[in-house]
Amino acid sequence: MHERHHGAVTVSAPLLGDVGVGLRKLVLTTHITTSVGWLGAAVVFLAPAVLGIASPDAALVRAVYRLMEPASWYTLVPLAAASLLTGLVQSLGSAWGLLRHY
Fold first, then answer.
1. Which residues are within 8 A (CB) of 51 and not within 5 positions of it... i.e. 6 or more apart?
2. Facing residues of 5 across strands?
3. Which of 15, 55, 57, 82 is deepest in the core (most CB within 10 A)?
4. d(CA 88, CA 33)
5. What is the pLDDT of residues 6-21, one digit of tens each?
6. Which of 72, 91, 5, 75 is nearest to 34 (CA)?
7. Nearest Cα to 80, choosing from 40, 24, 25, 27?
8. How confident is the model over 20-30, as pLDDT tens digits?
């Protein structure tokens, strides 16, 4: 990682090099979209989960859990992975890096 000195402050250069403003905004927008989508999908996922837990009807419980499995694999998992991936790309493209928080 390259370091630039600005007075008394040392700023590290991004690991991925200098990325353009347009690319940085695209990654940020994608990260926010996937993160909010993941959060929304998790909230929506709670409704059938509560219904499955609270219902005394065995057929309804079975149907709810049969619905929840593909919903989790096709919505929650991809959105979580996309959110993680875009967050990693965003951190590697910034001067702060992945593990630096100060």
1. 60, 64
2. 10
3. 82
4. 15
5. 555 555 556 555 667 7
6. 75
7. 40
8. 778 889 999 99
